Amino acid sequence: MNLFIDRLKILLASSGKRQTDICAELGISKQKLTNWKSGYSEPNIDDIMMLAKYFEVTTDYLVGLENEDGTKVH
Q1: Are 5 and 37 in contact (CB under 8 A)?
Q2: Is the pLDDT of residue 68 over 90?
Q3: 8, 22 contact by CB (below 8 A)
Q4: C-alpha–C-alpha distance, residues 23 and 74, integer Å
Q5: What is the pTM of this model?
Q6: What is the dihedral of CA 21, 6, 13, 11, to 10 degrees?
Q7: Contact, 73 vs 65, CB < 8 A?
Q8: Residue 57 near residue 23 (C-beta atoms within 8 A)
Q9: Residue 33: which residues within 8 A CB-CB, separation 6 or more?
Q10: 2 partner at 20 to 30 Å CA-CA among 11, 29, 41, 67?
Q11: How far apart are CA 73 and CA 48, in angstroms?
Q12: Please, are residues 38 and 45 in contact by the beta-carbon 8 Å criterion?
């Protein structure tokens, strides 16, 4: 499975916010977020950086290159 999709779903669920609110705060459409969650499309680098800042995680964590504790995935 795609680690980005898994981690995005975890971050969305743990945020405690409605997805429509998150989309409004990020300035993206709900369809865009839905496409990312389903794997229909992938975010570009600017979107990945935006998501990482919003959820206060690293871009490496978001794309599956490191674990929650910062250790690199081998």
Answers
A1: yes
A2: no
A3: no
A4: 32
A5: 0.90
A6: -70
A7: yes
A8: no
A9: 19, 22, 23
A10: 29
A11: 18
A12: no
CA-closest candidate to residue 8, choices 54, 46, 73: 54
The three-state DSSP-derived secondary structure of 17-49 is CCHHHHHHHHCCCHHHHHHHHHCCCCCCHHHHH
Q: Check if the beta carbon of residue 67 is closer than 8 Å to that of residue 61.
A: yes
Position 50, amino acid? M
Cα-Cα end-to-end distance for the chain: 16
Q: Which two tokens stand for residue 54?
A: 């919003």
User: Distance (Å, rounded) from C-alpha 58 to C-alpha 53?
Assistant: 8
**């999709």: which residue's tokens?**
5
Tokens representing 73? 């995935």
Q: Which amino acid is at 63?
A: V
